[in-house]
Amino acid sequence: MVTTDTISIKVQKTATPRIKELDYNHITFGKLFSDHMFLADYANGAWGDAQILPYGPILMSPATSALHYGQAIFEGMKAYKNDKGEVSLFRPLDNHKRINISAERMAMPTIPEEVFMEGLKQLVALDKDWVPDTDGASLYIRPFIVGTDEFIGVKPSDNYRFYIITSPAGKYYNEPVKVLVETNYIRAVEGGVGYVKASGNYGRSLFPTKLAQQRGYQQIIWTDARNHRYLEESGTMNLMIVIDDVLITPPIGDTILAGITRDSVLTLARDWKMKVQERKISIDEVIDAHKRGTLEEAFGTGTAATIAHISTIGFEGKDYVLPQVSGRIFSNRVSQELENIRKGKSEDKHNWMYKVG
Ligand code: COI
Fold this sequence. Notes:
D-amino Acid Aminotransferase, Chain A, domain 1, D-amino Acid Aminotransferase, Chain A, domain 2, six-stranded mixed barrel, globular, binds 2-OXO-4-methylpentanoic acid
């Protein structure tokens, strides 16, 4: 049992550690899970029963409400290890704020900071050997909350479970991505849930993405639901475009997730006195810039990939090929600087790193 001023966590350590399964030189994304997981339950209007258990399957009723009506939200975040072997989380309090924004929109209970943070800290400290220190690698952390009522009437669940699982992560994309501008299907609409990390947002993206992949693209650029002219997100990431040395990204709103990597990239760009515009950007403007030779960079930002360079943008049957990634000044610099801050090699001016243990 670990007890702090505000929360007690029952700890049951695994009798069969699996750390030997982790090959630090060949880490993929999202397939291997660390030895332990954190759980807390919400019942009678309060969170309790916090515990750390060996990672493993959970028994659940087939009538569990989240399986039917999608009261399911999640976060994505990462822990890093520096040269001294110290482990830090990247901006965890921002993930805590965001999961509560998601909870509110999905009629779910918010999670107190001490439950979220203590669960996170104790779990990552216990499994610190699972945090890789190799270049570009980290421990991906997946906190999530699901409705657990055994009831198939449609209403907000009365009971919920908060989980945290973790998984060593290497690169999400090995190559720059070819993206297709989607002008038929939509991801999000004003008044909808596009701005939160609701599981259904990801489920609904899979079919259009599959169609794009059948045409030779890896990802989609989503466009606005009304006219399919304004660019929104790129796959599961925020989208950034550099035209004529100006960094442009669609503004946060109902249809765009307030990405923590997005905010970090914009903050560094502003530190470096780069011109930043958070505004609507149309596909016509991007194609026009491509024609004029001023489209310098395009990339996605997200926790999983950090920076995913876009090599080609497909639109209405034509492919627009972007400049070589090696010559892209801003996205390469920002990608390296984020890695340096996370691994303790650059000064953490904005206090983004939160030490664990
Ligand atoms: C992220 O990069 O932040 C994501 O949400 C991607 C994840 C769904 C794999």
